[in-house]
């Protein structure tokens, strides 16, 4: 009925985890939101320790059901059903918990605390609805359980799991969805849950032990309810991640109004809890992203900020063309205040110098490197954001090219938090991973900068990094942007467009009425 609904885990009483309740907000555009009254609170024996992660399903007749994990007194994880008092209410203000909750207990052989986060339901070829959930067996083998149902209150557990991967530990927030191999439209599992041509299936899990969101691309057999990876060496939990920075517990949903699949995760804090209590809040959601298969590589996803975020762009923008970056260059970009930005940047590497380099940094890795200050022959080069004028605080985002002795090269995309804050008790990681750069492509990145967050997208969204930083000097009017090339053996030419960004509107329910 024209509204996007967001439900989120929330503690109404404190900025520290606990008393987990479902907050509720609605939006017309995924950017500007109205806060509604709390949707569900922990008030029954089966969820008294928390109304935890769940998923909504809209049935063909328009009815809406919500499955969620409740934490009982002993923290055992029980699956519960809720539904709106009035499905025809566009705001879905009032929610009712099913009288006979819980509808699912941990099955035999599954730990009481290893059974959580029911997915959105979809119909299989036999007319039964499917639901998957995260679990583990033998303590270390992460897996997704599969259930069938016809009435949403009684569920049958299948003997075999949808998929499992040894050594990955407990799987949370499991997600399974189709992606087109040819188009850029998103696909709805309810339309493709019976298997179709021209489609691959993404299986995603949030790793409880490493706190990362892992995905893999493969095929789904709707009769056997089995998922198979295209590349077993890039299986779920050992291959690709949605985001190589601070990003966790994500969910996707299909948006029929724009025929797209939208991804949301939460960006956690790395500061002390005492600081969260002082500021009065902790954790934020990323800018929502559309998700499609990379039709050029067929081996990775493309994530990109939803188009609505561009409504926050200033009418005018700064443009810099063909800025020459010699080895060791650091060039300030005079754009005024640089705390809320949307930056689109392209870097052209001198092909003669790149071709003349025989071997460089074969063993390079973003996370084990010394960040942007470590100079290599072919990197790093990129942008420095959230920096003060003297660079005592800075967050560089950059490319780094490693070249093998056989002439092939591998490109890395990194974000360096090591000098992001003068504070001593906050996280300061060097994040990143490799990114495919195809023949004829320049090196390109898009950065969404928002005071203490940088969301970085490389090569059109093939690799993504979210940085949660805590600047003390590079704030408000003191925040600056620089171009840099810290490579020793290549010249780089940079072209950029930079928009100032307005603030999203986050209004309480009273203003809405």
From TrEMBL:
The UniProt record lists the keyword Heme: no
Keyword Hydrolase: yes
Glycosyl hydrolase family 32 C-terminal domain span: 308-500
Matching Gene3D superfamilies: Exo-inulinase, domain 1 (2.60.120.560), Glycosyl hydrolase domain, family 43 (2.115.10.20)
GO molecular function: hydrolase activity, hydrolyzing O-glycosyl compounds
Gene Ontology biological process terms in this record: carbohydrate metabolic process
Record's keyword terms, sorted: Glycosidase, Hydrolase, Zymogen
Matching InterPro entries: ConA-like_dom_sf, Fructan_Metab_Enzymes, Glyco_hydro_32, Glyco_hydro_32_C, Glyco_hydro_32_N, Glyco_hydro_beta-prop_sf
Boundaries of every Glycosyl hydrolase family 32 N-terminal domain copy: 2-305
Organism superkingdom: Eukaryota
Family per record: Belongs to the glycosyl hydrolase 32 family.
The protein's name: Beta-fructofuranosidase
Species of origin: Lactuca virosa
